[in-house]
Design brief:
The structure is a homodimer of 179-residue chains. Helix content of chain A is 50%, strand content 19%. Chain A is α/β, with parallel strands linked by helices and 179 residues long. Chain A has one domain: Ribonuclease H-like superfamily/Ribonuclease H (Nucleotidyltransferase, domain 5). Chain A has a five-stranded mixed β-sheet with strand order 3-2-1-4-5. Chains A and B meet through strand 3, helix 1, helix 2, helix 6 and strand 6 of A and strand 3, helix 1, helix 2, helix 6 and strand 6 of B.
């Protein structure tokens, strides 16, 4: 199973591809950050994020995309940007019929460190160990994207297979309409 | 000047096209709502909104897109969906090099009714009068989309011309990069 994890953000959108199955050693296929300049206007930043994510999907052909679920209890301005960047990631994946799962930050932390309240350093250390890397991926957004992908591989493999079948089916018959 | 107004939302995304210039009678070119089913998954709802907005852009070829600026002091869950729907509208317009302006709800209300605290009925009544319609557009999201377009036409025509030149220029040279 190959998963693209996306830690959404307007300034730095972490992306990481992990391959493997639950219970076996995992392999990092790629990791990076899609950046957009803070002084660009919002529309152009979203276009740049779309282009960046499309490149990752083209190059790595993931079967699943895992995106961090955004909450609004954090800083108000950041959250709106994060929600908008996550919308672009969801759109890019769903347009291709790739199933998308949303995982909360605490689900991801719990999956890779055993604690939902682990800090950035702990997540980075475990990602490094689990993927047998020589050093923690930088910046933290990149490590978080890999952690999301790992979390997704480890959670409910049966559910993933079902979701993939549903996503492929519904991609052929979009449900929206214009009235 | 032809403007597409978008009142973003996941369940109902209001869209309205108005043509005219400040100081002259305005004309409604089209109005409607892009709907997505509440029980569909988020990714597919965003894809459906993208398809709906693309159809409006294809059919009406607006020179500007005006989107409601989202604030997060409202209901938390609604706001995240609104932010994500607005991201899709911004993305669709910016991808085509169409300049996008964000207007706050109070700017829009003040533009069409003279009061930033006007209610839905008042906005609907003024939209009906200003566009010489026989009845207020339904639902309110559709009327709000028209009010956004009117607000945009009336605010700073000179600024619109400048913004259009910049948007066309930057669309040719997107600023994002993948690292």
């Amino acid at each position: 199973m190959r998963v693209l994890g996306v830690d959404p953000g307007l300034t730095r959108c972490g992306v990481g591809v992990v391959e493997g199955v639950a219970g076996r050693p995992l392999t990092m296929i790629g990791v990076g950050v899609v950046r957009t300049p803070a002084d660009a206007d919002l529309g152009h930043r979203l276009v740049a994020i779309e282009q960046g994510i499309e490149e990752w999907l083209d190059e790595h052909r993931p079967e699943f995309v895992a995106v961090e679920r955004v909450f609004s209890q954090h800083n108000v301005r950041t959250v709106m940007g994060t929600a908008q960047a996550s919308a672009v990631a969801l759109l890019c994946a769903s347009r291709r019929g790739i199933p998308v799962a949303l995982h909360t930050p605490s689900e991801v932390k719990a999956a890779v460190t055993g604690s939902g309240r682990a800090d950035k350093a702990q997540v980075g250390a475990m990602v490094t160990r689990l993927l047998r890397l020589s050093a923690p991926p930088k910046p933290a957004d990149a490590a978080d994207a890999l952690a999301l992908a790992i979390c997704h591989i480890w959670r409910a493999p049966a559910q993933n297979r079902l979701q993939r079948a549903v996503a492929l089916h519904t991609a052929k018959a979009p449900k929206g309409r214009t009235a």
